[in-house]
Inverse folding.
C-alpha cells in the first residue's frame, strides 16, 4: 500500500488479487486496483466505507483531485474506495496488447466473458473482506455501476449497508433489443433539441457527412473517419454540456476545402476507444442474459428511418447523430479495436450468458436503496428504470429532469446528498 496527500484528502493505493473465474478460485488470478480516499482530518477516524462503482463498462474509476465533485459530500460520512473494475485503469488490463497473448479470437472471447457485472460484484465481495474486515459497506453506482449495484443486491445483499444509484437502474429482464428501441427514440429527441438550439449546425453537420461520404478522412492515429464513425460523436448529447460541445466541434471544420487537422484531432478524442476498449467490446454483452445480442444496435437502427444518413447526405433531412451504440464497423475502423473485431463478433453471437439479476431476492430486499432516475436520460431508459425501481423492495426513487446522465459529477454533491438522505429516511 502507498499513501500520499492531496489538498484535504489522504489517498492510499491498494492492489487486490482475485480469480479470473470465480467459479474456479484456484485458477488464473488477476489484479484489481483500488484507491482509498479519506478526508485529511478524518484519517485516524473510524468511518464506514463506501465503494464507488464507475460507469461504463470498461472505464476506470475517476482520478480525484482533492475533494472535487461528489467526493466532497461522500467524505463527510465515509472512507471511499474508488475501484478500477477488472480490466480497467490500473487493474490487470484487457487491451489489444494484453489480449494478443491468446492464440485465437475464441480464447479472447472466453477470457472477456468473465468481465461483466457478475464478476465485478464477486471481486467487490472479496475485496470488501480485506478492506472492512467483513463489515458491510455502502455502494455508490453510477450508470453501468448502478447495473452492478443491482447485481450486487441480487447476489450478495449482505455485503451492502446502503446503496445509492445514479442513472443506473437496468431493466431486469430487458434484452438489448428492448433497450435500443427505447434509446434510439431518446437519441432522436436529443438531436432535434440540438438543432433547435443551434439551427446553423444542420447544414454544417451535413457538409461534414457529405465530405466523408465522398472520401473518409485519415485521423491522427491512422484510423479512418467514416460517416458512421462521425455520427458516433453524438454520444456526448446525453451529458449536461454535450449539445454545446457538439456545436463548437462543428463550428469551423473545414480548411482549404477539406476537414482541418484541429477538427480531426477533436473528433478522434471523441470516437477513439483507446482509453476504454472494453466499452466497445462488452457494451452490448452487458445487457445479455441467456440470449445473443447479434449486434442489436445495428439491427434496431433499421427500425428508425430518421437515422438513415443517406437521407441527409443526398437530400435535405437533418443528420441524426447516434448515441452510445456500438456498431461492428467501429471496431474495424478504430486501430485499437481492429485486433479485437473477431473476438467482438464471437461475443455478439454468444448465447450462454448467465442471469445478472434475481427478481425474487430483489422483492425481498432489506438494504436501504435510493436511486436517481433522470427523466431525459439518453443512455438508461427511464421506462425500464421505473419498472426496476418498483421491483426492488423499499427502493426510494427520485425522478428528476433537473440533471442529465452526468448529474452525479456536475451537481457538486447535491445528487449524492439527496440520495443519502433519502436512503436514511430524512427526506
Amino acid at each position: 500500500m502507498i499513501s500520499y496527500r492531496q489538498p484535504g484528502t489522504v489517498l492510499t493505493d491498494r492492489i487486490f488479487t482475485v480469480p479470473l473465474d470465480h467459479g474456479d478460485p484456484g485458477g488464473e488470478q488477476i489484479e484489481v486496483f483500488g484507491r482509498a480516499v479519506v478526508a485529511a482530518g478524518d484519517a485516524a477516524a473510524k468511518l464506514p466505507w463506501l465503494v464507488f462503482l464507475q460507469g461504463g463498462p470498461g472505464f476506470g474509476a475517476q482520478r480525484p483531485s482533492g475533494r472535487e465533485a461528489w467526493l466532497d459530500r461522500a467524505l463527510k460520512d465515509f472512507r471511499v474506495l474508488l475501484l478500477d473494475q477488472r480490466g480497467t485503469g490500473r487493474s490487470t488490463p484487457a487491451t489489444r496488447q494484453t489480449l494478443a497473448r491468446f492464440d485465437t479470437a475464441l480464447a479472447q472471447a472466453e477470457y472477456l466473458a468473465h468481465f461483466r457485472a457478475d464478476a465485478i460484484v464477486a471481486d467487490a465481495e472479496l475485496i470488501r473482506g480485506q478492506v472492512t474486515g467483513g463489515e458491510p459497506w455502502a455502494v455508490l453506482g453510477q450508470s453501468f455501476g448502478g447495473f452492478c449495484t443491482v447485481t450486487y443486491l441480487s447476489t450478495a445483499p449482505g455485503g451492502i449497508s446502503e446503496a445509492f444509484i445514479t442513472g443506473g437502474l437496468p431493466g431486469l429482464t430487458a434484452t438489448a433489443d428492448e433497450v435500443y428501441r427505447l434509446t434510439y427514440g431518446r437519441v432522436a429527441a436529443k438531436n432535434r433539441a440540438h438543432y433547435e438550439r443551434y439551427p446553423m449546425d444542420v447544414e454544417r453537420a451535413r457538409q461534414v457527412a457529405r465530405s466523408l461520404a465522398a472520401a473518409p478522412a485519415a485521423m491522427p492515429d491512422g484510423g479512418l473517419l467514416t460517416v458512421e464513425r462521425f455520427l458516433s460523436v453524438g454520444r456526448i448529447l446525453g451529458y449536461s454540456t454535450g449539445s454545446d460541445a457538439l456545436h463548437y466541434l462543428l463550428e469551423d471544420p473545414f480548411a482549404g476545402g477539406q476537414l482541418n487537422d484541429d477538427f480531426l484531432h477533436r473528433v478522434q478524442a471523441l470516437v477513439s476507444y483507446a482509453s476504454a476498449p472494453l466499452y466497445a467490446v462488452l457494451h452490448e454483452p452487458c445487457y445479455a442474459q441467456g440470449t445473443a445480442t447479434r449486434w442489436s444496435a445495428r439491427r434496431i437502427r433499421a427500425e428508425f428511418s430518421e437515422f438513415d444518413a443517406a437521407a441527409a447526405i443526398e437530400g435535405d433531412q437533418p443528420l441524426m447523430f447516434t448515441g452510445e451504440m456500438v456498431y461492428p464497423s467501429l471496431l474495424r475502423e478504430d486501430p485499437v479495436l481492429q485486433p479485437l473485431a473477431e473476438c467482438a463478433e464471437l461475443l455478439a453471437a454468444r448465447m450462454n450468458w448467465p442471469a445478472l439479476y434475481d427478481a425474487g431476492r430483489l422483492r425481498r430486499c432489506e438494504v436501504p436503496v435510493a436511486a436517481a432516475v433522470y427523466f431525459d436520460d439518453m443512455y438508461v431508459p427511464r421506462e425500464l428504470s421505473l419498472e426496476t425501481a418498483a421491483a426492488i423492495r423499499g427502493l426510494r426513487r427520485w425522478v428528476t429532469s433537473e440533471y442529465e446522465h452526468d448529474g452525479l459529477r456536475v451537481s457538486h454533491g447535491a445528487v449524492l446528498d439527496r440520495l443519502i438522505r433519502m436512503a436514511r429516511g430524512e427526506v
User: Anything to note?
Assistant: DSSP finds 19 helices and 13 strands in the chain.
